[in-house]
Amino acid sequence: MAYLLVHDDREYLLDPGARMETDLGILEVPEDVSAGDIVQTHLGTAFTVRKLRLPDLFHHLERTGAPMMPRDVGLVLGLTGAGSGDCVLDAGTGTGILAVALGRAGATVESFERDPEFADTARENLAVAGVEESVTVHTGDILDHLGELSGFDVLTLDTEDAPAVIEHAPTLLVSGGYAAVYSPFVESSREVVERAREVGLVDIETRETIQREMDFDDRGSRPSTAGVGHTGYLTVARRP
Asked: Which CATH number fits domain 3-51: 1.10.287.3610, 3.10.330.20, 3.40.50.300, 3.40.50.1820?
């Protein structure tokens, strides 16, 4: 598994045994490196070795398209309770940020991604995050495999096909299992809610995911004016 090497505002994601040339000197990572160690370049610049946390992975993993933001990932995990021992069915892998978070929480994940390039990138990211044993990325459309899938504790969808997939939630999920659907557009969320009602899902709720950072300076304190903090809409429902 890779580690994060930090010096002031410099951060490098490196594997044990890796070698990197920087303007601060040549950085060689020992094979037996561990979190908390200090590694120096040949010019004497010291880097602190850190164990990777999910926020580090979000910033340093390879990205394709628009990855799910940490606040959205947190809502999915918090509202579904996905964690150790759960089996999760995921569609719309993308970069794999959500799949990585689910894997690191202890879940076993079967994820589907239609774009082969995205799927390959996600597999590389899973390896960096150290969850390649618990998360499997399938290249293909989940709609083509619904007849083969059942018995999942959680269903997570970040795909334009979500309304069509949610119709099958009663057969995909175990009793009491959760479905979480993320969409950048409210029209899609409305359609998901309508389909979820039609197939008998309960506890259906949709939230806009929005967050404001705070600015503190000599004049006073107020929400930041940099952006509105909106990312999308998250619908959560449950099989009775």
From this structure: 3.10.330.20
Q: Domain coordinates of the chain in residue numbers?
A: 3-51, 56-238
- The type of residue at 40 is Q
- Per-residue pLDDT tens digits for 136-146: 999 999 999 99
pLDDT in tens, 80-121: 999 999 999 999 999 899 999 999 999 999 999 999 999 999
Spatial separation of the C-alpha atoms in residues 102 and 152, rounded to whole Å: 13
Q: What is the DSSP letter of 8?
A: T
| Assigned CATH for 56-238 | 3.40.50.150
Is the CA virtual torsion 53, 91, 15, 57 positive or negative? negative
Nearest to 96 by CA among 123, 75, 116, 74: 123
- Tell me the two tokens of residue 64: 């394709």
pTM, entire model = 0.88
- Within 8 A by CB and 6+ apart from 104, the residues are 54, 129, 130, 131
Helices (H) and strands (E) in the chain, counts: 7, 15
